[in-house]
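Extended Data, panel c. Modelled sequence:
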Amino acid sequence: MTEKAQLTTYLNGISPVTKKPYSDNTKKSYFRFYDKLRSCLGKDIVDSSQDKIVTCSNDETSTNSKQGILNIGLIIRNINKMKTDKIVDARDKNKGKIIEDVKEKNTHLDLPSYADLEDFVEYLWDNNKWTDYIINYLLLNFQVRNQDVNFTIVKRKKDATNPDLNYIWLAPKKAVYFRRNYKTSGTYGDKKNTITDTKFLTALRRIKARGDVFIPNDDQVGYYVKKSTFKEIGEGAYMKIIVNHFRGNLQKLREIAQNRGTKLETITTNYDIDLN
């Protein structure tokens, strides 16, 4: 079996991290890194040394790309029961570099305030921008990721049946937000939030009147979210603003971590603007 066939079989299985099948976007990313590593090596990964794989990873400019190259080398060598100690060591060292990259980026941030985001949500409501309002409401109040807003709106709870999809059950006086398909669902399980905000319910009814599906194209969720945000700064910037606003409130930060489905340590490391 060729290496690419081995990688295909691996990606058609279950992720050891999320405990769910790999998404199409993740598969594309893995294959892209495989092609880059294979091109750099000039031969199969199994015919190359760990040192050469690490050298190829160091040719990448971003730390995340370095990790992507190393991950491919690790997967292929593990499949073929080959040593990976040097690759694992390089990957662990890069994790520290990722934190340093975050600190460097934070020193150059010029983000709007939390109050600016609150005002923007009200602007969207006042101007009947229902889809943008709903996205921004969820980003601000539940600190969701892009994928989380890819949901179907149903009026009966019993219609929220697919265990792999996100739903909002729109009842007469409340909305129940079910998240089953999000980045860390394999670790944190299903999430459910009950929302009674009358403006949010009204916006949902306006959207529901034109159909069930909220995001029209599954492959472009990130595009829709980014376009809807304040000055198109995106979900990650919102998270930084929110964490900075509540940075002195440990109880709120724990709530944010619970909402997002991540560790408190991850939030304070990756999203604290003052971590510089």
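The chain is about 55% helix and 5% strand. This feature is highlighted in the accompanying rendering.
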